[in-house]
Amino acid sequence: MADALSVIPANVLRNLSDKLYEKRKNAALEVEGIVKQLAAAGDHDKISAVINLLTSEFTYSPQANHRKGGLIGLAAATVGLTSEAAQHLEQIVPPVLHSFSDQDSRVRYYACEALYNIAKVVRGDFIVFFNQIFDALCKLSADSDANVQSAAHLLDRLVKDIVTESDQFSIEEFIPLLRERMNVLNPYVRQFLVGWITVLDSVPDIDMLGFLPDFLDGLFNMLSDSSHEIRQQADSALSEFLQEIKNSPSVDYGRMAEILVQRAASSDEFTRLTAITWINEFVKLGGDQLVPYYADILGAILPCISDKEEKIRVVARETNEELRAIKADPAEGFDVGAILSIARRQLSSEWEATRIEALHWISALLNRHRAEVLNFLDDIFDTLLKALSDASDEVVLLVLEVHACIAKDPQHFRQLVVFLMHNFRIDNSLLEKRGALIIRRLCVLLDAERVYRELSKILEGEADLDFASIMVQALNLILLTSSELAELRDLLKQSLVNAAGRDLFLSLYASWCHSPMAIISLCLLVQMYQHASAVIQSLVEEDINVKFLVQLDKLIRLLETPIFAYLRLQLLEPGRYTWLLKALYGLLMLLPQQSAAFKILRTRLKTVPSYSFSGDQVKWTSSGTPYSQILHHSPSVSQISEDGDVVGQVLGNSNSHNGINFTSKLQQFEHVQRQHRLHTRELAHSRNTSTNTSSAKEVQRSEDARRPASSSSTSTVEVNRMPSRSRKGPGQLQL
Question: Is Membrane a UniProt keyword of this protein (predicted)?
């Protein structure tokens, strides 16, 4: 301290702390001259003493004017040292940096001015302080005082110039600081950071691309900034980096892919578009590096396929196709299970397009890596079954294709049908809304006969009789009306002359017994008219209910469709198809006369001629009405067998043909129907018991509430209640 006081006159020190800038400036010039003389003399000890004096007595002084004088004095001392200033920077720079956080804005301003002058002198030698200077400038860029901001910008430009020409700058030491600052939200700081990233990236010797994963997320975060200028600067920087990635032979795609996946789910449209654009380029360029990240990338792409912004949808679809076209191998790190998990999760998406693409992925994986997919079947099977209830027909059809692909193996086919039946059982709406579509599509994809045989086998042992009846009715309607099942119908029509048709008929018969109308329809389809008549004759009062009549109405209308054209043409030969007439008249007798179905069938039967066309001959019957043939039918004469040939047959015989024992089949049908009747009675009894119990409790509560203390009042209540029973009308039931 004494050495410094001996070389700096007292008036200089006094003026250095003056409130007037001019006096402080002149005093600083005096200090510059003194230091220059000491440097020329090589007296660095006294120079250090002068710097210490300026620091301790001025820069750290509680008086603002002293601090201002100290800063201008340190800058003057550096100018005086010129080329020898580098060895004193450890003393000069820290006090100036400390002043950047001074409460007085003028002190902060002079600190910027002082460091600017110091930097001009020492240039690259002060790079060792770069991180501290950068951190200070980062804060000053958002300073509340406009003059300080302006001074900081000037200093910032000078520092950038020095860094770009220096070979001592360490990007490795700088990146951690940059990564930390990238999360700042202040717009001025963001502009400052983007500016530095752009400048450093322009320096050939600095590999900013190698450190891009460290600050990439911060740049993407700026794309949603409220300032258009910041968004534009960030986008420009990102575009430049993406171009460098395309031209670079070595890029760390993995770390950046993780960032892009997260940003693709941003709520900001511009951020999503930029992220998905980057992902698109990565999929094209990444190669094997991206294989472990395919699942994450797919998880980002699929939601974007349904984005509300068209540009995002277009890029996402293109990326999805690129990714699916890559033939990756599990041996190379391709995680089939992870991909399936993503696809399964996206099947629950609210957007149809996303669900469709998820199914395309599952289908593609099944075709390429079937064994691996089947290992994860338990994880996705339930979700695939639930997807059958999807509101979109296209989704349901794709799900069925996936199921069909899985069901190529016998064990998986059985599992599919069992689970499908279970879903129909627990979800009535699925059967009502999607049942026909599902069954028809499966018949196309998996062979109709195979599907129907398996369904029939399961329904044969179905414990829920109500469900079995509903399911059989649905299957029967599909069988009779679906164009996809035309070949199956043709095969069934050969049941009396063909072993394959007979086997199919027998496999369906057991389960079709759950529905009288289904059995009758099946018999009419396969032209077993005598058995159809026998089934109709076996029906009892309990069988003919509203549900039965509804099904009968459907059948009568179906008889008028092209599918049953052959049956209507057979009515031209009433003498040959006597049992057909008897069956149809039997159905007519079961219909209410005022119903539309009754009128339709009666009108059809009225058109039956009273003569039979057989070859070139016309055979007149014994009566003018077809039904008279049935009435005059004698069991002792020749009858028309099920296949249409005339054979000697007595009604009491075994009634079998082509290995089909019709008597046994009729007994089987009657046995199943007895089970249904018993089940119906039990349900009715259960409901009545429940109703009576609740009614009795209600009456008891009512009586308890009204019962008075005297016995005479009780008698009055009983007397008043008795007539209400006697007034019950003749149409009311007495419980």
Answer: yes
